[in-house]
Amino acid sequence: MKKTLLSRILLGIPLGIALGTLISILSSWVFSGEYYAACVPAMVQAVGSELKAVTLQTALCGLLGAVFAGASVIWDMETWSILKQTGLYFLLTSLAMLPVAYLTHWMAHSVIGVLSYAGLFTAIFLVVWLAQYFAWRRRIHRLNQTLP
Q: The pTM is what?
């Protein structure tokens, strides 16, 4: 288990960085139009330079990747209920995602901003979870039909 956890964490770091970079490119196309915005201007202003902001954001994206990938070992706990797995995974990823989103200025620094971002994160989590649940349920049903 420890070896699996470590390998997933180490794989998650570059995946988180790659995903963060891809999101910054896509959001630059959508919101900036003609120029690449590596991070939110408010973050650049908060940390004092674009280089510091990009460096911090890259490290935090790596951390997010490590947490999401590392926490995936929860789904391997076959003796745990789906409710326990889901609750713990959601708790761990939320405890990483919300502070990172706040530090990177991906959310407004207000009560409404935090609540909105938490709501959005929860909604996305639910959509992805439900899609995975029904996909696995369909696969299991098909597999069961092939059994004598």
A: 0.86
